[in-house]
Amino acid sequence: MNKNISSPETILHKVTTPLTTWYQTNARLLPWRTPAGSSFRPDSYHVWISEIMLQQTRVEAVKDYYTRFLKRLPDVSSLAGVSHDELMKLWQGLGYYSRANNLQRAAIQIMEEYGGSFPEHYEEILTLPGIGEYTAGAIASIAFGEAVPAIDGNVYRIYTRLCGDDSDITKTPFKKKLRSLLSNAIPVTEPGSYNQAWMDLGATVCLPNGAPLCSECPLKELCTAYKEDSWSRYPVKPPKKKRKIEDKTIFLLEYQGTYLVQKRPPKGLLAGLWEFPSEDGFVSPEKLQELLAQWDTGADSIELLGRGKHIFSHIEWHMIGYLIHLNRLPSVPPANEGVWISTQKMQKEYSIPSAFRAYYSKITSMK
User: Fold this and answer.
1) Which of 34, 98, 152, 296 has the least CB density, counted as fewest CB within 10 Å?
2) What's the CA dihedral at 350, 356, 361, 362 to 10 degrees?
3) Can you list the domains of the chain with their CATH numbers?
C-alpha cells in the first residue's frame, strides 16, 4: 500500500535530477566503467562480464577476477573458444559456476547469430543464456544508450522506501508495476547513468544491511521512510526457506606426491568441476578402513583434518576430511573419471571449488 501523499509516478519524476546530479560527483570508480559524465560508453563485452560476475558477489571480490578474466579472454571470440577446464579455472573462487557456463553458451550464440558482435538491443540481449531482465537492461542502457530500466535489489529497496510501498517485492504484479513506472521515468538522454545512479545509491547510501545513511542521501526530502523513520520496514519479502543440510566426508588420497581428483557430473551443483572423492554422511575411522579394503589399498598414515562447512544458496554442506597417504594405488577406483595429479598441476590447471577450500588448502600449503 502506498502511504505517500504523492503518487509513485510523481516521486520518480522528481527523483531524476537530484539522483543523476548526485551520481556525477559520487559515482564509484570501477574498472568496467567509464567516468561519470564521459561522452564515451563502455564496451558491451566488459559491461556483460562485470554484470555476470557481480551477481551474488561483492564488488571488491570481483575486481581482480574481472581483470584476470579480461586479460585471458578479451573478447567474445576468445570466450567462445576457450576450453571448459580453463574457463572453470579462471572462475575458480567466484562460485555459482553456472554463470561461467552460461557466459560461454552466450558467447557461442553471439558468434553464430551476430557474427561476434554483441547484440545492441534489449530484446535481443534478453535471448542470451544467463541473462535476465536486469542484466539485459544494464547492458542495453550502459553500453548502447537504450532507455530501459535495470531493476535489481538496490532499486527495489530505494523505491519501496521512497514511496512507502509495503508490497511483496517478489510478486510478479509488483515487479511489472515498478518496471512500467521506471520505463516511463527513465531519461532518454543518459539512461546508463540513471541506472548506475540507482545502483550506487543503493550500494553506498541506502544500504541493504543496517541503517541507511539518510543524511547523505540526495532523495531524503522525497522519501517516506526518511520522514517516518521507517526504513527497516522496507523492502517487504517473504522469509528465506531453511537450507537443507548435507553431511559429507572428503578424502584427500595421496600416493607418491599425487592426489586423486574426479570430475563432477555435467549437470547439477558444481557441474563439471573437479573435486576430491567423498562419501555422504560422516565416515568413522572404522568405516574408513572398510572403504580402503573395498578399494584394495592400504594406508601408511591417516590424518583427520577436522570439520568444514560451505553454504550454497539452498544447501549447506557439513564436512569432515581425511588426509590418507596410500601405500599402493587402489585397484578398485574410489572415483569415477579420476586422475592422480600433483599439487602444482592442481593449482595451475584444475578448478577446485571453494566448497573444498578448507581441505584443498591443507595440501597446497605443504612443502
Assistant:
1) 296
2) -120
3) 8-233 (1.10.340.30), 244-364 (3.90.79.10)
pLDDT digits (tens, 9 = 90+) for 109-133: 999 999 999 999 999 999 999 999 9
Please confirm whether the linkage preceding 235 is cis (ω < 30° from 0).
Answer: yes
Mean pLDDT by 10 residues, the chain (367 residues): 71 96 96 81 96 93 95 97 94 90 97 97 97 98 97 97 96 97 96 97 95 97 96 93 94 95 88 92 95 94 94 92 95 83 92 89 75
Q: Which amino acid is at 206?
A: C
pLDDT at 363: 87
* Share in percent of the chain as helix, strand, coil (round to 5): 45, 15, 40
User: Cα torsion at 44, 50, 53, 58 (round to 10°)?
Assistant: -160
Burial class (CB in 10 A: 0-12, 13-18, 19+), 266: exposed
Instruction: Provide the 8-state DSSP code for 243.
Output: P
- Looking up cell 558491451, which residue turns up? 44
Find residue 279's DSSP bridge partners: 249
Look at the alpha carbons of 66, 68, 70, 73 in this order and tell me if their dihedral is positive or negative: negative
Residue-wise pLDDT for 64-92, tens only, equals 999 999 999 999 999 999 999 999 999 98
- Classify residue 26 as exposed, middle or buried by CB count within 10 Å of its CB (0-12, 13-18, 19+): middle
Distances in whole angstroms, Cα of residue 68 to Cα of each of 34, 74, 105, 254: 19, 10, 20, 31
DSSP bridge partners of 278: 250
Q: Which residues carry out catalysis?
A: 51
3-state secondary structure 144-158: HCCCCCCCCHHHHHH
